[in-house]
Amino acid sequence: MVRLLVGTTNQGKIREIQRLLHATPCELMGLDAYPQLPEPEETGTTFEANARIKALAYAAGSGQLTVAEDSGLVVDALDGAPGVQSARYLGPDATYPQRFEAILAGLAAHPERPRTARFVCALAVAEGTRIVFETRGALEGEIADAPRGSHGFGYDPIFLVPELGCTTAELAEDEKLAIAHRGQAFRMLAYWLGARGKER
């Protein structure tokens, strides 16, 4: 049984990860098991860089095999914003409705630009001082005209999946995980963990 520290305190993410790895032979721990660990400064300019920073910091501090991910919303018409600043967009104390309003206002200011966007999740696993696994998932979509739906978290209410005709906040959890960026990345992690377990 692999012990795996998940480098996040976001309960929404932890719930999703538990569902995605439920069939994998691993024991999951959250950062609440290591309250003394400081949160590393996310100085990377890419999702991948920030995922590595967090994985390496939490692995060093805990001595555990650690997975960390950095994810967010990339809006093409806003030159990629909020991007790696997704969780801190407009400041750490801003609410998501405030962030939705800012994104929609930014799009309204440029009606000639496409509303295309994507959710991105970069994932890294660290063991000691080494990154031993990395992967990435992405879900393509558009920004909705207004927030819709009450499921999910974060930017889900404004992220429209055109082929489904709904936002990710209007999808049931299992439906969302089947297509979402984090679902893609953590299914690849589950495959890697399964192969790792067989090698040992």
In short:
By secondary structure, the chain is α/β, with parallel strands linked by helices. The protein contains 5 helices and 7 strands, in the order E-H-E-H-E-H-E-E-E-E-H-H.
How does this structure look, described?
The chain is α/β, with parallel strands linked by helices. The chain has a single domain, classed as Maf protein (Alpha-Beta Complex), CATH 3.90.950.10. It has helices at residues 11-20, 47-62, 96-108, 173-179, 181-199; strands at residues 2-6, 26-29, 66-75, 116-127, 130-143, 159-161, 166-167. Helix 4 (173-179) packs across helix 5. It is globular and about 50 Å long. The N and C termini lie close together (10 Å). 37% of the residues are buried.
Low-confidence stretches: none
What is the percentage of strand-forming residues? Answer: 25-35%
Mean pLDDT: 93
Summed up, the domain count is: 1
CATH class: Alpha Beta
Radius of gyration: 17 Å
Q: Any guess at the CATH architecture?
A: Alpha-Beta Complex
CATH topology: Maf protein
- Number of DSSP E strands: 7
End-to-end CA span: 10 Å
Our count of helices gives 5
| CA-based shape | globular
Write the layout of secondary structure elements.
Layout: E1 2-6, H1 11-20, E2 26-29, H2 47-62, E3 66-75, H3 96-108, E4 116-127, E5 130-143, E6 159-161, E7 166-167, H4 173-179, H5 181-199
Parallel strand pairs: 1-2, 1-3
Antiparallel strand pairs: 3-4, 4-5, 5-6, 6-7
Helix pairs in contact: 4-5
